[in-house]
Hints:
Layout: H1 5-19, H2 26-35, H3 40-63, H4 70-87, H5 94-104, H6 106-112, H7 128-145, H8 150-160, H9 165-189, H10 202-205, H11 207-227, H12 232-250
Helix pairs in contact: 1-2, 1-11, 2-3, 3-9, 3-11, 4-7, 4-9, 5-12, 6-8, 6-12, 7-9, 8-9
Amino acid sequence: MELSYWLIFGIPIVAFLYASIGHGGASSYITILTFAGYATAIVKPSALMINVVISLVAFLIYFKTVNFPWKLFLNLVLFSIPFSFLGAKVNVDPSIYRKILGVLLLFPVARFLNILPASGKFKVEMKLWIIAVLGTTIGFVSGLIGIGGGIILSPILLLFGWLNFKETSAVSALFIFVNSLSGLFSVYQQGQIFQNIQISDPFYKNMGFFILLALLGGLFGAFYGARRFNHSVLMNILNAVLLIASFKLIF
């Protein structure tokens, strides 16, 4: 399989867009690789690898701009990490896999179109049992699909009125980082990293190159998102991309 412009241009652009809002972008890396014709065996670990890099970059940049809510974050990951590990052990039928991903892509669209409120419009009391339900559910789904879970966590944190936009971006970025590591370790433990992929495959041979492209896109995206950007135009473009991808994956 030859490398396509889908990958060369798509990966850094996705990294830029997602890092600007504190996300890793695994859902869209999965979409790009799936549309490029790669099997789940390479798509899932590849997306998680890139996700780890981009979410860490986004967190380090956003962390400097907020008073980070460590207590909330630690409670979330206490429940999410083991369930992300368990979810990554479940093998999903490819057709179900694509449909689940397509539905998940609608979460950030709803958030960015303000179908879900930005913050403070609703206020849910921050109780441990609610945090536990969120952590376990999002963690399991993240491991199952091969994402970090930020696309689900962010709109919920904003909907509940627990954090503002930049705090949510910082928490989501670190949440994505730890869950992606947990899912990646689970996949590795099962011996599924690039299972049945030939060493001559162009994507496999150039994994370092694609991670570098993603890193450059993520660095610029996180910097401008945390310190410079007016998000309106950027979010409209991202919404259009996500809606198209979601439609194709579901139908």
